[in-house]
Amino acid sequence: MSAMNNQGRPTGTGSATSSSAIQTYTGNRGLRLEEPLIFELDNPGACGVDLDEPEDFTPRLGTLERKARIGLPGVSEPDVMRHFVRLSRKNYSIDAGLYPLGSCTMKHNPRLNEKMARLAGFGDVHPLQPQKTVQGALELMDTLAHWLKELTGMPAVALSPKAGAHGELCGMMAIRAALVARSEAGTRTRILVPESAHGTNPATAALLNYKVDAIPATAEGRVDLAAFKAKLGPDVAAIMLTNPNTCGLFERDIIDIADAVHAAGAYFYCDGANFNAIVGRVRPGDLGIDAMHINLHKTFSTPHGGGGPGAGPVVLSAALAPFAPLPYVVHGADGYSLVETKGEAKADGTAPFGRMVAFHGQMGMFVRAMAYMMSHGSDGLRQVAEDAVLNANYVLASLKDDLSAPFEGPCMHEALFDDRFLKGTGVETLDFAKAMIDEGYHPMTMYFPLVVHGALLIEPTETESKKTLDQFIGTLKHLAKAAKGNDKALFTGAPHFAPRHRLDETLAARNPVLRWAPAVPKQAAE
Amino acid sequence: MSEIRFTDQHEWVRVEGDTATIGITDYAQEQLGDVVYVELPEVGKTVAAGDEAAVVESVKAASEVYAPVSGEVVEVNADLEGQPGGVNEDAMGRGWFVKLKLADKNEFAKLMDEDAYKAFVEGLA
Amino acid sequence: MRYLPLTETDRRDMLGVIGAKSVDDLFVDVPARARRSGLVDLPKRKGELDVERALSAMAAKNVSAGSVPFFVGAGAYRHHVPSTVDHLIQRSEFLTSYTPYQPEITQGTLQYLFEFQTQVAMLTGMDVANASMYDGSTACGEAVLMAHRVTKRNKAVLSGTLHPHYRAVVENISEVGGYEVEALGATVSGATEDIITRIGDDTSCVVVQSPSFFGDLIDLRAIADAAHAKGALLIAVVTEIVSLGLVTPPGDMGADIVVGEGQSIGNGLNFGGPYVGLFATKTKYIRQMPGRLCGETVDAAGERGFVLTLSTREQHIRREKATSNICTNSGLCCLAFTIHLSLLGEDGFRRLARINHANAVKLADALSGVKGVDVLSKTFFNEFTIRLPRAASGIVDALVGKNVIAGLPASRLIPDDASVENLLIVASTEINTDDDRAAFVAALKEVL
Fold it and tell me: How far is CA A362 from CA A142, A359, A372, C232, C274, in A?
């Protein structure tokens, strides 16, 4: 059988039991509030909106009128408000504390960005209203494109991808289109991806029917240049490389890698998830990269929103620029306009590979990212990278004797540790992370990257103060000492103080319950 | 009289007459953790040695189970669809995956015997 | 800089702990020729006031939908969103939380995703729904790939009245994946599309939108039966989800997968994004679904709780064998959807749908009284197609001059097809008043 992921996180629920002997009538624990599902709050007849029934008219529904009840609950406005406010209090957030998830760039989300995205001229315009009525929206897209091109040193950008993985798909499609134009799409069928890559990289390559070939890492956590060169050949379409890589390290040989890729007739895709480490200091265009997506929700601080929405514009080299997808913005004598069809593109001298998405991309995210970039400016953005890297190195230097670091510093924007410091303690990476919850922190990224055993990946970002970091470092030192001091119960039962103890993922997967359903009456009363 | 052999991919195969029963080893189920789902092939499908014969999923991993020997699928363990935990509880017994009509007994003879597999697993630690 | 807490003193002290002389020492791994000493050629930092001024000036160059009588739909609809929605989604705990990978401290997100999945399943008449895709068009592309996995076939047949952007997304993902697409030409409102005869033994799925791109309601029952008889799946597309308050849901008409655009509930127009893709199917196909799924379970103390589940389908575990490469979803847009639909409830949602339909009927009747205008749609929800005496694009431009944004000329999305050149697709939701409709009719009479 294939890989069993024996380095993956364990999935047991730990040894927790109820943390308090006192049972309350409600199940609440002071401010720790329980909340039923919205469906369980159904109060037939209640409604959270006031709408008047339309006057009599003759419907034009033909035979397709919905008759049966949908099953939605009736709930008044105050009860809806309370329901969601109570739910919100079960969540950790960057506004409330350090969120050191490596590879995720959880930084402060300025509210100015929210305010700007809600201006009626941006938030209340339709993607298909006449273009002369949306000149400001097109100007904003054009301005964002200009900033992204300047910051990356690349000549073109495709704005429409909806998230990082979607941007990867876009970049790889552009590469494929360039190979089609060279009549080499049929022969170049292999993609080189380092072992340490995000899972989206091989998944994206597979969507394009490419064979994924893994490149091993060196003992220093970087791409093995010799092994990489040995894998190059006339059947290689591209390399997909994350830089800085998922171990938080800059790929020192990146220019050699780019040169070798190009000499072999292939293209260089860079996963730009970690652009925050180098923005304003290093331009990907100067490294020989052909395509790179930029997660606006990471580097440019659009909020993560519990898992989305994101935005993943892709910058492209001159070799790939003509193949950028529809639509794109052009500026002519009559102002801005969108090139939306292949016919218009042909007249414009380009050869787009197609369309990634309906409409024009994540405008709401473009506005937020633009507000963030303008606030920082060229000087502030460079400072972002420097402070992000400084903070990560400060964490690495402060903790390397208490935890165990697999690679020598300096690191870039994130500090990687492994589980050697837990050896013999009976405490695993997962337990250690869950104990952080009891200390009021969101845990770091665990068990990723896969190239390190029991990985703990910490990305503090530039928006944390020294005082916050010192408190965090102190907490980790304390926990490491407790683990080594055989205080196992502190860990295996953790978290003790969260809204929930560890959840049974096996039960969830063996018996999937993916929606609420009304209870079936046991037996109709006689 | 049955005989059991093992692969270095942690599958086992037991042969009785010309029927080969295939499963994953106890070591494999322990490494996977709680098995939550098993995807089985259709009866009548022919597989070659090394082909994917089934998929086993735990919460944290999904692994292909390769056929250690070639043959035609004659039976699958339908009990695993409702009770995938059977793989954890009795990997070498009622946690079996598929039965094949053995195409070539020589393939079977080339696999590891119990002692060789035991030594192989010890070497992994 | 106001977003950066470190002071020069902090930086010096921290470099001391690290043992570095300057921050440049931390960038030693960058090849020398790629290190930039100076700033990139962009403006320097700005205070809040200056950023507000600059961006507000750009925003002011747009005509917002709320400032004029507005009738554009075609996959994105202007509805009224209650104030409660925007307040709640801006709560820190929702806005600034990450994907719920640590379920003990993200039960808020997980529970609303579970509620969202339930609501979407109810609206579409399906068994289960996922925790959202990027938008309707990408959900449609994913549905086609899923149908190929389920049927082990590789040809999709697309209705000619599928939104042209959705069609383009399906064609794009199919081309790179090596799959076949047969897309029918546009069938203009009033005529019936013959899609059933296109379903063959090699067809994996049939993709049909209702209400269609032109606004017409399509009875899916016969198409579903024909698809199933050939072993193919029916994928139903709904770009105006409010329609399901009044129109028979695809699940009741035999659809195997329903995808849709959820923007209409809780989310603004935003010039095209972010929106929220809906994806629902039958229980037997859940392991072939793309995207995140939230499931119910219990914690170590036996209390009910929620987790992301069946994640072995996903890229972070299965890598190149994943059902999709999707990672991010539309979390906050799902939340807006869930809150708005909770406020509406059964009664409010159905009434909202009736108001939409009534407004569209009123507008269609008023426009049919204008000389030279033909209303082509026979059955519709809140959007319909009219034929004008000459090219619709020129008329729409002329109407902008009269401060009316009248609808979408079909030719903008279906170029090079003379049969649609005079067609205008018009939507009317609850936001349109009698005065709006009167202004539209009066302005149209003037420009014709």
Answer: 14, 9, 15, 34, 5
Any idea what the Cα angle at residue A191 is, between residues A188 and A194, rounded to 5°? 160
Output the pLDDT for position A526: 40
Handedness of CA A20, A26, A29, A30 (dihedral sign): negative
Say whether residue C318 is in contact with chain B using an 8 A CB cutoff: yes
Give the list of residues 6+ apart from residue C2 with CB closer than 8 angstroms, or none: A375, C47, C48
d(CA A476, CA A397): 13
pLDDT at residue A408 in the model: 87
The burial of A513, by beta-carbon neighbours within 10 Å (0-12 exposed, 13-18 middle, 19 or more buried), is given as middle
Of B12, B35, B26, give the one whose Cα is nearest residue B99.
B12
B37: contact with C, CB 8 A cutoff: yes
Q: Are B69 and B49 in contact (CB under 8 A)?
A: yes
DSSP-derived 3-state class of residue B92: coil
Hunting for tokens 């020069």 — which residue is that? C8
Sheet with A236-242, edge to edge strand ranges: A156-158, A314-316, A291-293, A267-271, A236-242, A190-194, A211-215
B→A contacts (Cβ < 8 Å), by residue, are 9-11, 24, 28, 31-34, 36-37, 56-61, 63-66, 84-85
Q: Examine the pLDDT at A5 and tell me if it is beyond 60.
A: no
Is A417 in a helix, a strand, or coil?
Answer: strand
The 3-state DSSP class for residue C258 equals strand
**H or E stretch at C156:** strand C155-158
Best CA proximity match to A473, nearest among A462, A464, A463: A464
Q: What is the pLDDT of residues C338-363, one digit of tens each?
A: 999 999 999 999 999 999 999 999 99
Q: Is C122 helix (H, G, I), strand (E, B) or coil?
A: helix
- pLDDT at A18 exceeding the cut of 70: no
Preferred mutation among C126, C218, C282, C325 to probe A, highest tally of A CBs within 10 A: C325
| Residue B38 burial (C-beta neighbours within 10 Å; 0-12, 13-18, 19+) | buried
DSSP A32: B
Encode pLDDT of C176-188 as tens digits.
999 999 999 988 8
Does the CA dihedral C399-C400-C405-C409 come out positive or negative? positive
Encoding tokens for residue A358? 């309906």
Q: Which of A121, A95, A85, A459 is nearest to A303 (CA)?
A: A95
Closest CA to C233 of C256, C212, C250: C256
Sorted by sequence, the CB contacts under 8 Å of residue B125 that are 6+ apart come out as none
C-interface mutation test, from A70, A293, A402, A473, most C Cβ less than 10 A away: A70
Strands of B25-92, DSSP E? 35-39, 46-47, 52-58, 62-66, 71-76
Q: Any CB–CB contact under 8 A between B33 and chain C?
A: no
Q: With an 8 Å Cβ cutoff, are C94 and A91 in contact?
A: yes
- Chains A, C: CB pairs < 8 Å: 714
Beta-sheet pairing, A211-215 with A190-194: parallel
C180-183 and C155-158 strand pairing: parallel
Between A1, A505, A506, which is nearest B10 by CB? A1
pTM comes to: 0.96
Residue A230 reports pLDDT greater than 80: yes
**Which runs of E-coded beta strand occur in chain B?**
3-6, 11-16, 19-24, 35-39, 46-47, 52-58, 62-66, 71-76, 98-102
Please provide the distance, in angstroms rounded to a whole number, between the alpha carbons at the two ends of chain C: 57
Q: Which chain A residues contact residue C430 at CB under 8 A? A: 51
Contact C237/C401 with Cβ under 8 angstroms? no
Residue A269's beta-bridge partner residues?
Answer: A240, A291
Interface with B, mutate which of C312, C314, C318, C319 (most B CBs under 10 A)? C312
Work out the average pLDDT over A384-401. 98
